[in-house]
């Protein structure tokens, strides 16, 4: 299986020329990269006006692998071929690298690109992509794959630190500005310019003899114009590393790669509106960053959302007055981590009456609107608190819960709602708190999926008269903690028992609420 990596756009707030000066200091060897032992220049070309500079190096690496594996492979060092194509006129640097050692067993390809930031010409963008394909390796394919990915991700983390280290070194030497390339006073004639282009194009056919003496493959000498270079994008269609850290959280390089690759796939296949980055990340986390599995459940969810117009539910659907009067739940500030807090007084709610009066579909639509409101509040709190907030806290007050709530159609409706929410709103419930659980609660909880049993922090029956368990006070802010035993919080509906028409009585007189038992 081919392993792929795609980095986000990393931004250096320094001019391109200064970044290039810092980058060149990494050669012929870099003490900050212990595995980078040495490098030799194999081939070099520079145009007459100095705008184009192509240099090819053979790099010697000391891979941190088990000694037994090195003995079986019969090598102590691994050699890579790296070709840098610098275009000072367009202010771009394209780096291509591939392995020379065991090229018939393992195929490693990497492409890096330094470009000018599209919105600020004094900033520099960096992108990186790579692929690993292990065909066979003495029966140690999985081991080699793990070692290669571990080494690669560790070097990714150091990449920006190394550039910043050399930038600081340049600053200490008094170099804080490098002038841009300018054409020479006497511009070359058309004939001279054509000969330069012809020479650069014929570099692949001129150099193979010298390259073969060094043991290099012909792939290393492909023309820069023939290289598969990704088009420079804008911040609108490519994710920035600073944006990911600010709005999505700290992700490992492989997690960032999974997010970017799934997002790119959605852009290519879904020509219209694609989900928000936070939503894509939730599906990836729900499947442990397995792109294939996350893609499958996400496509199913997108089809479901489009079919039921869930994206417009907050703007186009108003809950019936019955729900507003008898559904005992609502949003109430946030917890100490900044997550939106939803309080549900399940024990005070007449689930049997609501299901009979409105039906299962209306209750499901109302729960969907609650989840959509939760997503909106998470976005707002992310901006307010200055850190990523992608889930909410649910506090369930079970005071008053009894056997009446175990009505079979009501439990069936509850299980269906949970199934729909778990399939389409993964990783949104950050914490579930159970307050004042009665003795009947364990019976009800056995009906809930096993994956949810480790989430709540239920209060023991002997503690049900207390305002909240110690764990709750450690989670909820003082502003959010209500005294449920005495004065009810005025911001939340309290719920009530719905009145039903009994045979031979007048009932409640409301056709929407009345029905037969």
Defining key terms:
12 strands, PRELI/MSF1_dom, CRAL-TRIO_dom, RIG-I binding, CRAL/TRIO_N_dom, 37% helix, single chain, Alpha-D-Glucose-1,6-Bisphosphate, Chain A, domain 4, Helicase, Ruva Protein, domain 3
- Main sheet: strands, sense, barrel: 8 strands, antiparallel
Mean pLDDT: 79
Secondary structure tally, helices: 17
CATH topology of the largest domain: Alpha-D-Glucose-1,6-Bisphosphate, Chain A, domain 4
- Give the CATH architecture of the largest domain: 2-Layer Sandwich
Residues in helix, %: 25-40%
How many distinct beta strands? 12
Shape: elongated
Q: Quickly count the domains.
A: 3
Give the topology string: H per helix, E per strand. EEHEEHEEEEHHHHHHHHHHEEHHEHEHH
Radius of gyration from CA coordinates? 31 Å
| Uncertain ranges | 203-235, 453-471, 483-488, 498-517
Measured between the Cα atoms of the first and last residue, the distance is 60 Å
Instruction: Give the CATH H-level superfamily of the largest domain.
Output: START domain
- Structural class based on helices, strands and sheet pairing: alpha+beta
For this structure, what is the CATH class of the largest domain? Answer: Alpha Beta
Summarize this, please?
Pfam families: CRAL_TRIO (PF00650), CRAL_TRIO_N (PF03765), PRELI (PF04707). The protein is an alpha+beta fold and 517 residues long.
What does this structure look like?
With 517 residues, this protein is an alpha+beta fold. It folds into three domains: 3-226, 2-Layer Sandwich (Alpha-D-Glucose-1,6-Bisphosphate, Chain A, domain 4), CATH 3.30.530.20; 241-308, Helicase, Ruva Protein, domain 3 (Orthogonal Bundle), CATH 1.10.8; 319-473, Phosphatidylinositol Transfer Protein Sec14p (3-Layer(aba) Sandwich). Helix content is 37%, strand content 18%. The protein contains 17 helices and twelve strands. The strands form two sheets. Strands 1, 2, 3, 4, 5, 6, 7 and 8 form an eight-stranded antiparallel β-sheet that branches. A hairpin with a 5-residue loop joins strand 9 (329-334) and strand 10 (340-344). Helix 13 packs across helix 14. The longest helix is centred in the first third of the chain and has 32 residues, at 141-172. It is elongated and about 85 Å long. The two termini are 60 Å apart. The relative contact order is 0.09.
């Amino acid at each position: 299986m081919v392993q792929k990596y795609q980095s986000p756009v990393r931004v250096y707030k320094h001019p391109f020329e200064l970044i290039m000066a810092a980058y060149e200091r990494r050669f012929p060897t870099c003490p900050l990269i212990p595995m980078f032992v040495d490098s030799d220049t194999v081939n070099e070309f520079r145009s007459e006006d100095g705008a184009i500079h192509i240099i090819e190096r053979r790099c010697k690496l000391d891979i941190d692998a088990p000694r037994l594996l090195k003995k079986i492979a019969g090598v102590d060092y691994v050699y890579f071929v790296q070709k840098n194509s610098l275009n000072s006129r367009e202010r771009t640097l394209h780096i291509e690298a591939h392995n020379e050692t065991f090229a018939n067993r393992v195929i490693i390809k990497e492409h890096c690109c330094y470009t000018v930031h599209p919105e600020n010409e004094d900033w520099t963008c960096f992108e990186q992509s790579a692929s690993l394909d292990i065909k066979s390796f003495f029966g140690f394919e999985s081991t080699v794959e793990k070692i290669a990915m571990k080494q690669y991700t560790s070097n990714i983390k150091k990449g920006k630190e190394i550039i910043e280290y050399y930038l600081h070194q340049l600053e200490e030497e008094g170099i804080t500005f490098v002038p841009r390339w300018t054409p020479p006073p006497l511009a070359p004639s058309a004939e001279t310019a054509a000969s330069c282009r012809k020479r650069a194009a014929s570099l692949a056919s001129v150099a193979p003899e010298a390259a073969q003496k060094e043991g290099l493959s012909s792939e290393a000498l492909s023309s820069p114009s023939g290289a598969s270079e990704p088009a420079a994008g804008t911040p609108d269609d490519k994710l920035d590393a600073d944006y990911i850290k600010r709005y999505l959280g700290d992700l490992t390089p492989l997690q960032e790669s999974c997010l970017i690759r799934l997002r790119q796939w959605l852009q290519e296949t879904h020509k219209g509106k694609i989900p928000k980055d936070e939503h894509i990340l939730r599906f990836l986390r729900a499947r442990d960053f397995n792109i294939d599995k996350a893609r499958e459940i996400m496509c199913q969810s997108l089809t479901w959302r489009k079919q039921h117009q869930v994206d417009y539910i907050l703007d186009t659907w108003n809950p019936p007055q019955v729900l507003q009067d008898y559904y005992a739940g609502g949003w109430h500030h946030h917890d100490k981590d900044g997550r939106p807090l939803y309080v549900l007084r399940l024990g005070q709610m007449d689930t049997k009456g609501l299901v009979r009066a409105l039906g299962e579909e209306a209750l499901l639509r109302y729960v969907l609107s609650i989840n959509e409101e939760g997503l909106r509040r998470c976005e707002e709190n992310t901006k307010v608190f200055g850190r990523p907030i992608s889930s909410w806290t649910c506090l369930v007050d079970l005071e008053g819960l009894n056997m009446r709530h175990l009505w079979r159609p009501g439990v069936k409706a509850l299980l269906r709602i949970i199934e729909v929410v778990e399939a389409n709103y993964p990783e949104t419930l950050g914490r579930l708190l159970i307050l004042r659980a009665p003795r009947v609660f364990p019976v009800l909880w056995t009906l809930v999926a096993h994956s949810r049993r480790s989430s709540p922090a239920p209060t023991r029956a002997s503690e049900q008269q207390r305002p909240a368990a110690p764990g709750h006070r450690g989670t909820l802010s003082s502003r959010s903690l209500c005294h449920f035993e005495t004065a009810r919080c005025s911001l939340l509906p309290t719920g009530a028992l719905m009145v039903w028409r009994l045979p031979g009585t007048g009932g409640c007189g409301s056709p929407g609420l009345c029905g037969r038992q």
